[in-house]
Design goal:
The chain is mostly helical and 296 residues long. It is built from 12 helices and no strands. It has a single domain, classed as Mitochondrial carrier domain (Mitochondrial carrier fold).
Length: 296
């Protein structure tokens, strides 16, 4: 019973809400970089130029607001996704004593949280990937929003289509797992030695996300293509993870698996850094208020 209370505690809820809100602030701030990343990953004809150059091209071709296409459903999905992730991770972490917390255990708990998150929220990201590409010349996908997308895809393509890209997503739980375990490890080493500020949390978050992104980017690229659908004429439409990976390697070489990584690194690192800074400040504020109320 006590373990159940630890898992479903007010403290765990605070971490989940703070994680969700932090991720929304981070993504909203750096959303144009995510747009660049998606377009480079999915548009085979678009040259892999620098991020500012691609942003300039998109504005010239489609107008400024194309940089923010699909932002509302992305933020909605991100809020849900990070709420689930932070709740699961911190709930599981509270089941363990502080003395037993190590980088390897954090990696395991973060991986389990990632699996739960993938299985519950993949349909939201399938719709999001398609919404982001809606309105392009090569796309006739038109959804009114997140709910309409979920209903339309399940109705026209079958409910299993909402879980397209689940395999690479499950493999990719190593990304947030590496990010979270690295973040927690660095934070543990610094706590007690220096007074951590928002700036420190920002830097720690940036470092942890950069490590995770560079190690897992090829899987993220394949995942995006599986969710949206690839445009390779000589590859079957329902090609799986391995087929798609080997096709890219054969046609474009090893660097083909890293197309758009500059934008991805910029976007994810800055977004994660800001997310952790906001998350830490929210949790500190709420727990400080809770402590004051207990003393009254």
């Amino acid at each position: 019973m006590s373990q159940s209370k630890e898992l479903f505690s007010y403290n765990t809820l605070v971490h989940a809400v703070a994680g969700g809100l932090g991720s929304v602030v981070g993504m909203a701030t750096f959303f144009p970089l995510d747009t660049v990343r998606s377009r480079l990953q999915l548009e085979e004809k678009r040259e892999s130029k620098s991020t500012p150059a691609v942003i300039s091209e998109l504005i010239k071709e489609e107008g400024f607001f194309t940089l923010y296409r699909g932002i509302v459903p992305v933020l909605e999905s991100l809020l849900v996704s990070n709420f689930v992730y932070f709740y699961t991770f911190h709930g599981l972490k509270r089941l363990r004593s502080k003395e037993s917390r190590t980088a390897s255990r954090d990696l395991l708990l973060a991986s389990l949280a990632g699996v739960v998150n993938v299985l519950t929220t993949t349909p939201l990201w399938v719709v999001n990937t398609r919404l982001k590409m809606a309105g392009l010349n090569n796309s006739n996908l038109k959804y009114k929003g997140l709910i309409d997308g979920l209903i339309t895809i399940s109705g026209k393509e079958g409910i299993e289509a909402l879980w397209n890209g689940t395999l690479p997503s499950l493999l990719l739980v190593i990304n947030p797992a590496l990010q979270m375990s690295t973040y927690e490890a660095i934070k543990r080493r610094l706590e007690g030695k220096i007074q951590l500020s928002a700036y420190h949390y920002f830097i720690i978050g940036a470092i942890s996300k950069a490590v995770a992104t560079m190690l897992t980017y090829p899987l993220q690229l394949v995942q995006t293509k599986l969710r949206h659908g690839h445009s390779y004429k000589d590859l079957k439409p329902n090609a799986g993870t391995l087929s798609l990976t080997f096709y890219i390697l054969r046609k474009q070489g090893f660097l083909g698996l890293y197309k758009g990584m500059e934008a991805k690194i910029l976007q994810t690192v800055m977004t994660a850094a800001l997310m952790f800074a906001v998350y830490e400040k929210i949790t500190q504020f709420v727990f400080k208020v809770m402590l004051k109320n207990k003393k009254l």
